[in-house]
Amino acid sequence: MVSTISQLCLLDVVALKAALPEQNLFPGQVGTIIELLAPEVYEVEFSDDQGQTYAMLPLHASQLLKLHYSPTQEDSPMSNTIHQYGQGDNISGDKVMRDKIGTQINNSQNLAQAAQEIKALLTQLDQDYDSGTPTGQAMISAKTIEKIESNPTLKARVVNALKEGGAVALESAIDHPAVKPVVALLKGFMDA
Description:
Elements: E1 13-16, E2 30-38, E3 41-47, E4 53-60, E5 64-66, E6 89-91, E7 94-96, H1 98-103, H2 108-126, H3 134-149, H4 152-173, H5 179-191
Antiparallel strand pairs: 1-2, 1-5, 2-3, 3-4, 6-7
Helix pairs in contact: 2-3, 2-4, 3-5, 4-5
C-alpha cells in the first residue's frame, strides 16, 4: 500500500498511470521529468533503450507514478556522480547529442503560450465581471471563448496545447477561478 504520494522533482523517473493513445503511450511506460512547467505540471521525456526520444509532453502529477530503486529512497542522499563517456551531455542517463536536440519538438511551448494568453484574457475580463460569482464566471468564460475564436493563431495554439498536454495540464498552468469552465468550453475546439 502506498502511504503518501512523493513530491516529483526534476530528473525523477516516472511511469504513466493511464494510456495516452493520441501520443501512442500506454500505462507503465517509463519517462524522465526534464522540466517543471507549472505547479504539478511536468515536461516528461520518453526515450527508447538507445536514448532516442520518442515522446516529450507536459503531464500533470496525477498522471504519473514516481519510480523508486530502493525502499529507503527518502532517507539516502542522492549521489552526484555522473558517468559520461564520449561526446554530448549526459541527462538522466541519456546521451544528448547536438543533432538529437535539433530534432526534438518542444510540445510545452504551445501549452505555456496558450496558458499565458488565456490567463491574460481572464485577468483583463476580471475588470468587467466578478469572477467570484457563477454569473461572473459564465460571462468571463463566454467572452474568453469569443476572443479565442476571433484569433485563429491563439485558437490553433489552444487546440495544440489541449492535444499535447490535455485539459488538466492547461487548467493547472492557469491560476484563475474561471479556468475550469473555460477549459471545458475549449475542449469543444478539438472536436471542431
